[in-house]
Amino acid sequence: MISALGPLLALLLASLFFTIRTDRFLTTENWSLITQQVAVVGILAIGQTLIILTAGIDLSVGSVMALGTIVMTRLAVTYGLNPFLGIALGIGVCLAFGVLNGVLVTALRLPPFIVTLGTLNIAFALTHITSNEETIANLPDPLVFFGDTFRFAGTTITYGAVLAVALTLLTWFVLTRTVGGRHVYATGNNPDAARLAGVRTRRVLLSVYAIAGLLDGIAALVLVGRTGVGDPQAGQSSNLDSITAVVVGGTSLFGGRGSVLGTLVGTLIVGIFRNGLTLLGVAAIYQFLITGVLVILAVGVDQLSRRTRA
Predict the structure, then answer these.
(1) Are the C-beta atoms of 19 and 278 separated by less than 8 Å?
(2) Residue 301: pLDDT over 80
(3) Which residue in 294, 306, 305 sits closest to 7, CA to CA?
(4) Residue extents of the structural domains in the chain
């Protein structure tokens, strides 16, 4: 919880800044839009948090998610498969990529950066091959359920946003209240010491990559619900967006320190910055510039804190 206090303060300051600069920022319609925009990245960032806590990285999440959207929509629409079975197979493909990443990292001891860079390209190619570069529309209701909305306190909220928060809270509970969660932190903090203490570090690494793949599949379903189509161009910036959310949320790229609640706050920070800058009429290219500055600042603060503790 403490690690999330810094990002939470940044979130409040950013909200205050945009509230002062534009009267459209605090409207219920705008906050509804923000929650819809950050739900997908928020789910991807949960898996990214687990991996970064073990001192790894996953560059493939966006491409794997895009592949998942194409698999589930093409099976349901083009081939007329039962939509629930199509969803299950789409999520299963994403899970398989997560397991593949984990096996290559643990069994062959390949660097996570290289492994996931490779699977990023494989998933990207498969997405465009299987989609024939076509956007898939006219989806059955089960595929778009998480894009449906309800009203709460005058704000329109999607079921996808609720799912993102629920998954965050579940992951927080597992990380902070279970033995498996403590093993994730121990593996990232000092894998050799964890191994000597009886932690099966390879199993931990395989598990976090597999869970990240599963979350990619869930994010794919939420994305389909939000857009209403299977789009082969989807998720191209989601890899970096998820890493940005994790780092800005206070999780150390060196592993062993951070919180998934901080990641939730980091996701909101990125979403609020982009939304607020759009409301102020700032060009999209400058939004990417500012996001890059946020990442560098967050990593710099983390490095300084590590040196101070040393």
Answers:
(1) no
(2) no
(3) 294
(4) 2-300
pLDDT in tens, 181-222: 999 999 999 999 999 999 999 999 999 999 999 999 999 999
Token pair of 102 as six digits: 């984990």
Alpha-carbon torsion angle 265, 115, 186, 259, nearest 10 = 0
**Residue 1 above 60 pLDDT?**
no
Mean pLDDT computed over 141-146 = 96
C-alpha to C-alpha distance for 28 and 44, rounded to whole angstroms? 25
Determine the distance from the C-alpha atom of residue 22 to the mean position of all C-alpha atoms in its chain, rounded to a whole number: 29
Q: Does domain 2-300 have CATH number 1.10.3470?
A: yes
Which pLDDT belongs to residue 240? Answer: 87
Q: How far apart are CA 186 and CA 194, in angstroms?
A: 6
As a whole number of Å, the end-to-end CA separation of the chain is 22
- How far apart CA 147 and CA 152 sit, in angstroms, is 15
Helix count (H) and strand count (E) of the chain?
A: 13, 2
CB neighbours of 111 closer than 8 A, spacing ≥ 6? 105
* Strand-pair partners of 149: 158
Lowest mean pLDDT among 38-47, 148-157, 168-177: 148-157
Beta bridge partners of 155: 152
Residue entry with tokens 């400058």 = 286
Distance between CA 219 and CA 76 in Å, rounded? 18
Selection from 86, 97, 90, 42 nearest residue 69 by Cα: 90
The residue type of 292 is G
The string of DSSP letters for 172-221 reads: HHHHHHSHHHHHHHHHHH-HHHHHHTT--HHHHHHHHHHHHHHHHHHHHH
Q: What is the pLDDT of residue 2?
A: 45
Q: 170: which residues sit within 8 A by CB, 6+ positions away? A: none
Find, among 293, 274, 281, 296, the residue nearest to 41 by Cα.
274
